[in-house]
Structures are given as C-alpha cells and as structure tokens.
Amino acid sequence: MREELYGEIFAAEQEHWWFVGRQRIVLHLLEHYLPRNSGTPCKVADLGCGCGMMLLRLSEKYEPVGVDGSRHAIEFALRRGVTAKLGALPEDVPLSRESYDAVLMLDVLEHLKYDRASVEVAASLLKAGGILICTVPAHMWLWTKFDEDHHHFRRYSRRQFRSLFAAPSIRLELLSHLNAIMFAPAAMWRILATKVFERDRARYLKLPPFNSVLSSMFAFERRLLGKVPMPLGLSFIAVARKV
After folding, report:
1. pLDDT at res. 189
2. How far is the CA of 175 from the CAs of 71, 151, 171, 200, in angstroms?
3. Is residue 194 over pLDDT 90?
4. E strand or H helix at 27, and its extent?
5. Please, are residues 122 and 114 in contact by the beta-carbon 8 Å criterion?
6. For residue 233, is pLDDT > 90?
7. Rg (Cα) of the chain, in Å, rounded?
C-alpha cells in the first residue's frame, strides 16, 4: 500500500463508518462462533492488522496479537498500545502454530500474490475447533484506482473466494456477501469517487455526512449473516472452522 495512506487509515479506523461497521460485525461473529472458553480469554491473531484499531477493540475481551508486513503499519499500531509484530504472509508469520482460538484476515488476501497458501498458514495457527474469519473485496467489475492505490492483486468472485477454503483441515461455516444493504449507492459512489478524487484520493477516507448512520446500517448486517441471503455486496465474508 502507498506509504502516505497509513496516516489516513490510522485516523479513519477509529471513526469511519466502513471500519467501525466491520469491527462490530467481526466482534459479533467472534461471539457467535468461538468455542465457549471459561476463565481464560481467547487468543486471537489479526493477520494484516494494519494500524491496529481492530486489535484495540479485541483487547476489551480477548488476548490479541497482530502481524503486518509494513513497518509503517506496525509503528501506528504500537501507538495504540497493542501487541503487533512485523511479518509476511505466507512465508514469515512469527506466531506459534495451533495456538489461537481465532485468526482474522480482514481485507488482506487481495493484497497477497499467494492467497491460497496464506489461508493455509492462517489455518495452521488455529487450535482444533478454532475459527478463521476473512473478508475480501468483491467483483472485478468494481475495480478502480483505489484498488491500485492499495496494491490489490484482485477482487474476488464467490467461486474464487470459496475455493480458498477447500483444504481438508478447515470447514466453511459461513460465506456471504457483505456491505449489501447500501450496495447500489456505495458501488456508484466508489466508481464516481475515482474521478472526483483523482488528484487527492486520500479524501476517500474522510468522514462523510451521516457517518454514524452509515456505520449503524453497515453493522446491522451482522444480524443478517447466515440468516438472510445477500445476493450482492461490495465484499465477501467467510467463517471457517479448524477440524
């Protein structure tokens, strides 16, 4: 990712509707899918932790650690007082195997050339019964300059995304579109914003009007996942369990 974007992301992670909504959705899924663990907080690894806001939210209930391939991201994450380590997927993840109750890969796989191998490494970190939560951007027809700025290799089709979880060591328990309620206006905005912010694409991360309303609308999807089919969305989300 372009280095100058990390400062923008550090500021946006705490308030921007997309980050806040996604954090609430992931926390809900952890509560729903994690094995009940009495006494000891569950250990959660956030691979591709970025600037660390998800780690900060996780620390309220869990024992989290983050890994990221960018020194800039790690520096920003450490400012939040969380534990984060420099590493790279799939070949250099400085965490112990079979040690975590949950592993997160939130909008990470699209940045990686070897996405399938990275999912296998993430699964290897899990204890038996642990869960892997992944989100990715959907549909190549939504590709814009923003994907290029963030050094994406791809956006995913449902079939491509599902194929990443074909390993016998994991069982897919949820696969759904995400960011579906606001799909039409958000998709249109994404395409138009490429032209509007062509000279200053960091403005894309500024807080929009009605930010808190947008955050609540996005976060509401946590109550629909696995219950109501969502045929379209800006992203996909998956939950897989280590068997």
Report:
1. 75
2. 32, 24, 11, 35
3. no
4. helix 17-33
5. no
6. yes
7. 17
| Run of H or E including 131 | strand 126-137
Closest CA to 111 of 61, 60, 68: 68
CB 87 within 8 A of CB 45: no
Alpha-carbon distances of 138 from 64, 65, 135, 237, rounded to whole Å:
27, 27, 9, 10
On the 0-12 / 13-18 / 19+ scale of CB atoms within 10 A, 182 is middle
Longest dimension (CA), the chain: 52
For tokens 């998709």, what's the residue?
187
Query: Helix axis angle, 211-219 relative to 17-33, nearest 10°?
Result: 20
176 Cβ contact partners less than 8 Å away, ≥ 6 residues apart: 225, 226, 229, 230, 233, 236, 237, 238
pTM listed for this prediction: 0.93
Nearest Cα neighbor of 43 from 87, 104, 94, 90 is 104
In this predicted model, what pLDDT tens digit does every residue of 152-187 receive, in sequence order?
999 999 999 999 999 999 999 999 999 999 898 888
CA distance 66 to 105: 10
